[in-house]
Amino acid sequence: MILLLCFMALGLIAQNQNYVPATLNVEEKAEANKSVFCCFAEENLEYPERSCFIGEEGIVVVQFTITEKGSVEDMKITNSVCENLDEAVLCCLEKTMGMWQPAMQDGRPIASVKKVYINFDMAGNPSHKDNALMMYKAALKSYSKGMDVESNYLSFTRQEQRKRTKFFERSLNELKEASKYAPEELPIVLWQAKAYEQLGDMTASKMKLDEYMRLLNPEETTEVEMAFIRAIK
User: Fold this and answer.
1) What is the pLDDT of residues 145-180, one digit of tens each?
2) Quick check: 182 and 154 in contact, CB under 8 A?
3) Domain ranges of the chain
4) HEC string of the chain?
């Protein structure tokens, strides 16, 4: 098994000239289009063997805070692909404990939030874009079938209600699969909110609508990076 890794730093969002981002205090130096964290991850993040064997892939998104003292807090997976890949990302991040230099603002250390998109890609498989589009189209088709059940009957029998629910649940599951390949895509998030609404889960629907609004207006202080990881058999 050969593991190829290529990291692309996306930079910082709307920073001023007096801001210096948090970085790892390690011997590795940042290369062109790579942050120090990405260079560290290149040496420490491995594509899980079981995930390679069964073909698990997608984009794991992890968000965490570097405090003003340089500690790592509030680690959370904001886009999950599967347990194996999620755990690999968190384990790699945990290895950086005690190695961070905090961000600086006007010469003073401050807490900062980092978000890292880690793209696990199996060579020879369809692209993540193609997989996301396929599942997205399937989800809209299932949603439409659910709406057809609603419009074709003036009153629901229990069987008809179960049929309607089945279509919306299928649509939601397909949207979740699409988000594994295309996290935080606005159309996917919006249709997830709609599917939850049709299923009567207004709490989940509101959470997705809130996420949609946050994506429309991202926080300017979040540092964003992306990692591309490819496994070749």
Assistant:
1) 999 886 665 556 788 888 999 999 999 999 999 999
2) no
3) 2-124+217-232, 128-216
4) CEEEEEEEEEEECCCCCCEECCEECCCCCCCCCCCHHHHHHHHHCCCCHHHHHHCCCEEEEEEEEECCCCCEEEEEEEECCCHHHHHHHHHHHHCCCCCEECEEECCEEECEEEEEEEEEEECCCCCHHHHHHHHHHHHHHHHHHHHHHHHHCCCCCHHHHHHHHHHHHHHHHHHHHHHHHCCCCHHHHHHHHHHHHHCCCHHHHHHHHHHHHHHHCCCCCEEEEEEEEEEEC
CATH code of the domain made up of 128-216: 1.25.40
pTM of the entire structure? 0.83
